[in-house]
Amino acid sequence: MTNPTPDSPPTVRLVPHERTFHGDTVTDEYAWLADKENPQTIAYLEAENAWTEKATAHLGGLRDTIFNEIKNRTQETDLSVPSRKGAYWYYTRTEEGKQYGIQCRVPVRPGETDPPSTTDQPGEEVLLDGNALAEGREFFALGTFDVSVDGGWLAYSTDFTGDERFTLRVKNLRTGEVLADEVPDTSYGSAWSSDGSALFYVTVDEAWRPYRVWRHTVGRPSTDDVIVFEEPDERFWVGVDLTRSEKFLVISAGSQITSEVRVIPAETPTAEPIVIAPREHGVEYSIEHHGHRFLVLHNKNAEDFALSYTSCDNPGEWVDMIPHQPGTRLESVDAFVRHIVISQRRDGLTGLRVIGDGSTDFYEMQFPEPLYNVSLAANPEYDTSAVRIAYASMVTPNSIYDVDLVTRSMTLRKRQPVLGDYDIDDYEQFREWASAPDGTKVPISIVARKDAPRNGTAPLLLYGYGSYEHSVDPFFSIARLSLLDRGVIYAIAHVRGGGEMGRRWYEDGKLLAKKNTFTDFVACAQALVRGGWTSSRRLVARGGSAGGLLMGAVANLAPDEFAGIVAEVPFVDPLTSILDPSLPLTVVEWEEWGNPIASADVYAYMKSYSPYENVAKLRYPRILAMSGLNDTRVLYHEPAKWIARLRAVAPDGDYLLKTEMGAGHGGPSGRYDAWKDEAFVLAWVLDVLDLASR
Description:
Blueprint: E1 18-21, E2 24-27, H1 39-55, H2 60-73, E3 78-79, E4 83-85, E5 88-94, E6 102-107, E7 125-129, H3 130-134, E8 141-147, E9 153-159, E10 166-172, E11 178-192, E12 198-204, E13 210-217, E14 226-230, E15 237-242, E16 248-254, E17 259-265, E18 274-277, E19 285-290, E20 293-298, E21 306-311, E22 319-322, E23 328-335, E24 339-346, E25 349-356, E26 362-364, E27 373-376, E28 386-392, E29 399-404, E30 410-415, E31 427-435, E32 441-449, E33 460-464, H4 481-484, E34 489-493, H5 503-507, H6 515-530, E35 539-544, H7 546-557, E36 564-568, H8 574-578, H9 586-593, H10 600-609, E37 622-628, H11 637-649, E38 655-660, H12 671-688
Parallel strand pairs: 33-34, 33-35, 35-36, 36-37, 37-38
Antiparallel strand pairs: 1-2, 3-5, 4-5, 5-6, 6-7, 8-9, 9-10, 10-11, 11-12, 12-13, 13-14, 15-16, 16-17, 17-18, 19-20, 20-21, 21-22, 23-24, 24-25, 25-26, 27-28, 28-29, 29-30, 31-32, 32-34
Helix pairs in contact: 2-12, 6-7
């Protein structure tokens, strides 16, 4: 490896490394880059960063402009809508010039029903200041933030590297003291017993799999903590939570396709966990406490899920409440004393269904826009007749409403401020459909300025993901305005592998059907060209993580369809990673991608689409790859190897690699750093689209 010259990117040494599976021997000349402790690895990544900075130096002014546009449109000193829990209103506020949120609460005043609406609150108690915790740190992320039932204790966890291994601490909210005891290597989530004497938390194994639930007695050293549950099956991960009713602690174990739930009465935290239903391969279920019963959302003989219930006193037979309705995917259930709210999706749109207690009648909340995204927001109170929802569209900023479940009236509590001259009437959103090679209709969500041309000359950024049944629903973005106002159209390809169109949509884009994800995306790009939205020379694709795999795959599959590709923390060497059970998350991923160790067919199929394995001497579009050195989900060396091979095999292309040396999967942690990162990407996109001068 040599340092970059003014005229060229860095070169990387070749160290042939062979692996053989199912009689197939593969040589990987860049496998040595997986050694994070090798000084040559770090030197190479830093040289790539230096080259990327040099190659994009002409965009420095544009990056600054876009950063300032994002900043100037954002209300920097702001307040989330406070949520009531017991005797307090809880909220997060931000202050101008500070990177991180500040977690606060104020007492509920006598007779007060509406949440506070200003950042200046008398009696405010700062529970946690992320800026103080992050002082002197390059990275900061909060994992758990959990106040005890009585409001006297706070459990919180921090990560200062980006590897998502958190250190758990307990703070006495009555005195402000942070207890001396701490627990390293914890995962997300925690739960308090009713009296606040016991804290339940989760730790990870060497492969970063959350696998143990512990019980900690407040005031005692962590060496006295007790293992409550341990999951031996490496395909499963565990989590812990407290029901909204605060009556039960819930321990969930799940793989990609199978679930098992245990409960402990919150008043008796030392009791043995009770299994709601033993795990059954291929059956997923979750529970919610509601009075004398547990509501059970499940997919047993119900592809798009059904709702049942079982007794709290003696969990057993499931009694049907809402039968399976193909095409209506039930995603979650939230119980309140007198109502049940079900989050669902149908025809590619999210929705909320409300059922009154003791009734089978229901109604669905109605929204006026053709494209939108709605979900329940924070609703910690169990005894309430109103719920808080979050609503947005591609043109309507993020909005918080309180909905009276009896009268159905909606009260807007807050709409995300967009400073400056933003006018919703200047923009339009559309739903288009592409035809995949097998005839499947694939939805596309589009937003553009009303004055954007529709004659094929407009530039367009197409986003995609398509894995894990994760849906990329229509959303609002302040940063995206910097593209729209320069004439760029923005579109989301809702490809198979995601969950936008129900469980079958997911099933048809995973395992040995994974290639549907890639061909769907190409079909969306082609449909946008045919429909006059753009042209291939003015089309840039973007995706991250598993969406980065999508980017790498379509680069090999249809390089002529795109002018540029942004691949963020891209899973572009999936076969190598899934062949190594020692890597973080590999075993739990086999039910998503298949097990190429056990199956020659899976091995051959994965190899046939793996971006790294299929780099060829093609004319690739311009490519920007982004990664994080401390990423435990997609290891940094996947994009590093991919870019190195692209340069070696197809040397005429323009490929850049940018590695955050102090961050993980989510990129920079502070909001200003995140805006700078986004400005970097958007400036590159505009450069590819020949709009860098605007």
